[in-house]
Known about the structure:
The structure is a homodimer. Chain A is an all-alpha fold. Chain A folds into two domains: 12-57, Homeodomain-like (Arc Repressor Mutant, subunit A, Orthogonal Bundle), CATH 1.10.10; 66-204, Tetracycline Repressor, domain 2 (Orthogonal Bundle), CATH 1.10.357. The first copy, chain A, has helices at residues 13-31, 38-45, 50-55, 59-79, 89-100, 108-118, 125-152, 159-182, 191-204. In chain A, helix 8 (159-182) runs antiparallel to helix 9. Chain A starts with 12 loop residues before the first helix and ends in a 6-residue tail after the last helix. Chains A and B meet through helix 6, helix 7, helix 8 and helix 9 of A and helix 6, helix 7, helix 8 and helix 9 of B.
Amino acid sequence: MVNSRKQFKRESPDQRQDDLIAATLRLIASGGPEAATVRNIAMEAGVTPGLIRHYFSTKEDLIGAAYERHMTTMRYATYSTREGALPGAVARLAALVTASLTAPVTDPRAMALWAGFIQSVQRDAAMHAIHEKTYFQFRDQLQMFISDAFIELGQPKDQADLRKFAIACNAVLDGLWLEGSALPDTFETGELPAIGLASIGAILGMKLEG
Amino acid sequence: MVNSRKQFKRESPDQRQDDLIAATLRLIASGGPEAATVRNIAMEAGVTPGLIRHYFSTKEDLIGAAYERHMTTMRYATYSTREGALPGAVARLAALVTASLTAPVTDPRAMALWAGFIQSVQRDAAMHAIHEKTYFQFRDQLQMFISDAFIELGQPKDQADLRKFAIACNAVLDGLWLEGSALPDTFETGELPAIGLASIGAILGMKLEG
DNA sequence: TATGAAATTATACAAGCGTATAATAAGAAT
DNA sequence: ATTCTTATTATACGCTTGTATAATTTCATA
């Protein structure tokens, strides 16, 4: 009788954790949270189910790690868009708005992921903490962009005003992102970025288009 | 041996369906979609599990019905706020914005419900259709409010402009609603309605506060 | 009061879930 | 080469899930 045990290659812990997280994200994106079973994740990552428990003490841990990874990736995809390569602060803000409202940020699969996670934010303390952290990271960075734009225009604002502007602009981005991701076929190409630029421009009292 | 079979009272089909939907909503709101099992729903509604299959051919059907019910309820809570009792179109629009961004619309439990549902919009054709329908119902009604406000101010707009305004204002409401529901403790009382009024006022170029 | 439709309960089943634990293999260190 | 750590596989367990089906009970109608 031949040895039928599965052959495997030892990977570094970091690499294996990455693989498992990536497999989890792929499954949730395509099939929702209920598709991300321990067995499915293992199969998707090309390992056997038991290995998951070797890296994550519970399935919830893995889900939480995947959520944080996803949010960080989206934030990076938004803010890294030609950062620094643009002439001025206002132009950088406009680029940020556009990047937030076009692929790959605005994307049905990304939204499926996000929605799968956000539902547990209320219930699970760990997920709540991760959400709060990533939300403030994003909003604070947006607030800095806004502040820089005002300074560039010679109209510096105080912190209280900046906070309100950041909340409002973040809401516009979230809302449009949501609409565009949930019903992508009901908007023309470029319609959402155009509306975003016009709306945020109106809120801040500065011209962002062109 | 006494008869140990559970005693029950016959209810009208409509009433029983209502009860099952209400029980489903309560469970999803407090424990997420995974808490809404057939057995839990039945227990919450005070019936036995088999009855659910008598009214809904599959569990997905029940979930879909619950989603539609929830969205309709929220829409009603938003638009019925002193509707008609207010002096003018601009004031009605302002009241709508405020109602959208205060309890019971902006509420962690409502968001948990919504998030639980929205995740399946991509995957499930029936849920997608329900979402599209309720989304357009809401946005079209918002667009009418906006149109009336412009007319009242003597600045009527054409359909293309109104569409963009409705998309933008809906995004502001969605985004602020999301922020306020997901992290209710990070905003002061009345802060979100104030930001909503200021932002939508700026987008439309009209004064909504006061 | 008897009849019958259908609302409701009761029970069963196969599949899938997360988790625990022991056996094995790989690869680095000696 | 050998040893040893640990990454990885294999297997099993108890529980929950959604669904199917048959047995009952209720209540309106005749």
